[in-house]
Amino acid sequence: MASFIAENFKFLALFFKSKDVMIFNGLVALGTVGSQELFSVVAFHCPCSPERNYLYGLAAIGVPALVLFLIGIMLNSHMWNMVAECRRRGIKNCSAPATFLLFGSVVGRAMVAPITWSVISLLRGEAYVCSRSEFLNPLSFPDVTHFYGPNVMARIPCKDASTEILAFREEARRRLMYESQFLGWMVIGIVALTIFLVKCLQHCCSPLSHHQEAYWAQYRSCENDLFNRTAEVHAKVLAASNVKQFFGFVALDKDEKEMVHDYPVDETQPSPQWNEITGVYLYRENKGFPLYSRLHKWAKKVIGNGMDPDGREMALLAV
Q: Any stretches that span the bilayer, and where are they (predicted)?
């Protein structure tokens, strides 16, 4: 039983490792759905007033989407790699199309949460009904012969609607809900078609074979994982050394003592080395041999942009 459970855990680990972007985007979408449901139940209250309805409805959809987009940008490490590249090297080693595609990749990942928020808002329809109610023409409904102004129509989403609109209130809500959900499904279709076309473009324009592309993805994942774990150990050992010099001793548990003993650290790496391995990186080849990352390029002591006259530049798979 133990071996069976271990094998299943290994399978799940490999699945999540190979599908990390898809899983992450799915979790972001699910988290956004939950947040939107909570917001609708707790915080959304239509003001039922002309002009305020429209502004409140737009703000309920647009402001959280904007906040989620900015959070997605800030949490994407590739964005800060681009900033570091611009500050240090001005992206002089990247072509304009490659730079555009790299930025598009960052923006595309950051759009997962705001698009999910907007779609769920439209499918629920509350914000749309609130914002559009005052613009309805009451004469467009059957058996309505008297024109009601925005002051009256703005109260359609509210429970305490005036008696003069009770006759067509439900029909008005159904019409607005239809429009809102139609827009939501249209957004879903457009996003799905866009993702499909981008994936087709990515694979069609890739100069790498399918297996080499998969290997590159595995290498990037392993390098990032090992680098972060090693950096954590290096920082802890260096900090322990400095604390010991200051106090004369350092409070470590058993595992930390073994770690300090097994991985002696004298000093940190100089800034030029950090600068060499930091920044935007596209797939390069040097004399027919691939360079999979800035760290790989630095380890191979390759000078310049790492491309021979027949080299290839890969932009679509870089992030």
A: 21-42, 54-75, 96-117, 182-201
